[in-house]
Design brief:
CATH class of the largest domain: Alpha Beta
Helix content: 25-40%
CATH topology of the largest domain: Aspartate Aminotransferase, domain 2
Largest sheet: 7 strands, mixed
Number of domains: 2
Shape: globular
Strand order of the largest sheet: 1-7-6-5-4-2-3
Order of helices and strands: HHEHEHEHEHEEEHHHHEHEHEEHEH
Length: 398
């Protein structure tokens, strides 16, 4: 289980000349002392030797080491977006004729990549209710290479039983990829059986909504495959994270544990009080939530249940009225994305999940009236909730 005495800061590497933060390497290419050394660098991974920043950059390497420590994996690779991390990891594992089993309730961009893009490459994807282990087993055949899920689903906040899914995957020599964007530090997928953990670092890990970035945390062997100059997905597709942004994210990771606790504390307060008003709210921290028991079993409890919740506003019109009122009342901003220090809210059916066909959204219970909230770091959460309550009254929801 998670060891709270091991702080992420314990793993960060100081700069070469005594900097409290590693120096930023603002260079696309690197010099060699001899042609032989250059040849060796192209043939083999040499620790501390860099050849071209599409392959590795020292600043990106610092960030990758910190992320690997956070997720308890041997290594990590940073990318220019969360989708770059997801697509690169999958394309490294799959080729024409292979098959994937995916959770059906996932981020819309991930759904679109799996549903619409991969079939163009001859890769078939089966979407299942990831909570139904029998359906996972029934979808497996000799061509299945990957099971893909989110630790906490977007936007309905269902928790995946990673240990049991991992047992199924290992029994059939299938790789388990877990998107842990909603729950950094809260859920540790690698310790629960995942082979590969991906994040959109744009969200909670960075926390300031000023850049787009992603990462892949996995074994050293898999990361080396990703950066192989002849066949690596990140090397050849080129989703490079700028070193200045990598340095910024590295500094923000220092406060991630504090931020996640505050996000969780505020979200739980809002969820509990929404429920008291009779509003249907999705939040795994509520005892009557279907995912509550499983999440308590799998989570690192000191970080809480996360900063994401969803409100059932019943209709698209009421959802729009509620969001407009909340923005006017300075609850937060009407915006996609999440993990910002201010509260953000949107209607997934018309934004981040709009890639999913309407009939499929209906089947999974994602109605047009659903409002997703990324709860911010408000110091006076009681004041924030009083504003939310007034907005609910204006929207006719309480």
């Amino acid at each position: 289980m998670f060891d709270p005495s091991r702080n992420i800061q314990d793993f960060l590497v100081f700069g070469e000349f005594g900097d409290v933060n590693p120096s930023i390497t603002d260079s696309s290419t690197y010099t060699f002392l001899s042609p032989a050394q250059m040849e060796e660098a192209f043939e083999h991974e040499i620790e501390g030797c860099f050849l071209y920043s599409r392959h590795w950059n020292p600043t990106n390497k610092y960030l990758a080491r910190a992320l690997a420590a956070m997720e308890d994996t041997e290594a990590a690779q940073v990318t220019a977006s969360g989708m770059a991390a997801i697509s690169s990891a999958i394309l490294q594992l799959c080729q024409t004729g292979d098959e994937i089993i995916s959770e059906r309730t996932i981020y819309g961009g991930s759904y679109a990549f799996l549903k619409n893009f991969l079939p163009r490459l001859g890769i078939k994807v089966h979407f299942v209710d990831i909570r139904d282990l029998d359906k996972i087993k029934a979808a497996i055949n000799e061509r299945t290479r990957v099971i893909y899920t989110e630790s906490l689903s977007n936007p309905l906040l269902d928790i995946a039983d990673l240990p049991k899914i991992s047992e199924i995957a290992r029994a059939h020599d299938i790789k388990l990829i877990v998107d842990n964007t909603f729950t950094p530090l809260i859920i540790s997928p690698k310790r629960l059986g995942a082979d590969i953990v991906v994040h959109s670092m744009t969200k909670f890990i960075n926390g300031t909504s000023d850049c787009v970035a992603g990462c892949i945390c996995a074994s050293a062997d898999f990361v080396n495959q990703l950066v192989d100059v002849n066949s690596g997905a990140t090397m050849l597709l080129g989703p490079v994270l700028d070193s200045t942004r990598a340095a910024s994210i590295l500094k923000n990771i220092h406060s991630l544990h504090i931020r996640m606790m505050q996000h969780s504390k505020n979200a739980l307060f809002i969820a509990e009080n929404l429920q008291k008003l009779g509003v249907r709210v999705y939040y795994p921290g509520l005892p009557d939530n279907p995912s509550h028991g499983l999440m308590r079993k799998l989570m690192n409890p000191q970080f809480g249940f996360g900063g994401m919740l969803a409100i059932d506003a019943k209709t698209s019109e009421q959802a729009n009225r509620l969001m407009a009122a909340m923005q006017e009342a300075k609850v937060g901003y009407l915006a996609v994305s999440l993990g910002y220090f201010k509260t953000l809210f949107s209607a997934p059916g018309h934004s981040t999940s709009s890639e999913i066909p309407h009939e499929e959204r209906d089947a999974m219970g994602l109605g047009d009236g659903l409002v997703r909230m990324s709860v911010g770091l408000d110091n006076d959460i009681e004041l924030s909730f009083s504003r939310i309550k007034e907005c609910l009254e204006k929207a006719g929801l309480c």
